[in-house]
């Protein structure tokens, strides 16, 4: 399984992240809670982030994996 974690950082502190396995934004601090609540309430926005696994993660994984497998 490929998992997408999108991290949001402000002032060198992670305050929010998106986890494709959970299918939602998860606040790490109180600062991230309003954004997480707002974005999690928008189902189209969540689906866009979840689709990133298919459009970004898996193609990049295949490229990186083939490169690193060739180096072994």
From TrEMBL:
<dbReference type="GO" id="GO:0006955">
    <property type="term" value="P:immune response"/>
</dbReference>
<dbReference type="Pfam" id="PF00969">
    <property type="entry name" value="MHC_II_beta"/>
</dbReference>
<protein>
    <submittedName>
        <fullName>MHC class II antigen beta chain</fullName>
    </submittedName>
</protein>
<dbReference type="GO" id="GO:0042613">
    <property type="term" value="C:MHC class II protein complex"/>
</dbReference>
<dbReference type="InterPro" id="IPR000353">
    <property type="entry name" value="MHC_II_b_N"/>
</dbReference>
<feature type="domain" description="MHC class II beta chain N-terminal">
    <location>
        <begin position="1"/>
        <end position="65"/>
    </location>
</feature>
<keyword id="KW-0325">Glycoprotein</keyword>
<dbReference type="GO" id="GO:0019882">
    <property type="term" value="P:antigen processing and presentation"/>
</dbReference>
<dbReference type="InterPro" id="IPR011162">
    <property type="entry name" value="MHC_I/II-like_Ag-recog"/>
</dbReference>
<dbReference type="InterPro" id="IPR014745">
    <property type="entry name" value="MHC_II_a/b_N"/>
</dbReference>
